[in-house]
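call fold(seq) -> tokens
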Amino acid sequence: MTSASFPYKAVIFDLDGTLLNAEHKLGDLTIKTLKQCTNLGVDIFIATGRNYPDVYKMVKKLAIDDVVLVTSNGARADFFNGKKVLQHYIEPHIAKALFQTPFDATKLYLNSYQGDDWYINQPVPQWQQYFAESGYSYKLADFTTQHTQEVEKIFFITKEVENPIGLAPIEAYVHQHFADVVQITHSMPNCFEIMAKGVNKGKTLSELTTMRGYTLSECIAFGDGMNDIEMLQSVGKGCVMANAEQKVKDTLSSLEVIGNHKQEAVAQYLQNLLAKTND
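ret:
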């Protein structure tokens, strides 16, 4: 049962650039804070563009069995204990067509999240730093013959992190050929992501909180990316990270901007709420 003095039924977090610290890990203060929230009966939702197995391994140290993991930008939701709650896959014939999207493989990587697997068209050893906490890794795939089962997300990433302009032809192509049947977003400026139509973090979280008997208006959420916008607009209290790209801040100009993820700003913000709860 939620503490009468804690103002929210649930706390909702993005991971990269929000809950994770500078080392792409859950910091000690963050772990302590999430456990304190759980002890008060507050629900925990982690909502990310990452895939389920990656997130599961990353948050295992929390040891909170009923935390809900919303992954692939809302295409899938699971309890930490392994129970799958919902999934929204791209239809196989649409995924097959998307896999044939023309692109310059010297400038872009093509990826897909399918079930528990991550597929990519080329190896990228330098990415392993982002998955050191979970140990999760990709499988090489030939997308001309790749299967189309359980496709949660298809995404293109530029090889030049600081030059996302290379995504423009891909975005134009997808808009032209698939706008009526897919949902698109960016988790980072250099990452263009495609899900089934209508799939986003906000919509999936709305489904999940309804299952719990309350609404997103009774929740607080934290995020930094374009793929967090629907989520942050839907909750009772949305907080934008100081390190968020300017486009996010401009879109959500009415929301409070808090500190930087590198200093565990989310945990510090919640500690202030918890202190008021204990007064």
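The chain has two domains: 10-87+200-278, 92-196.
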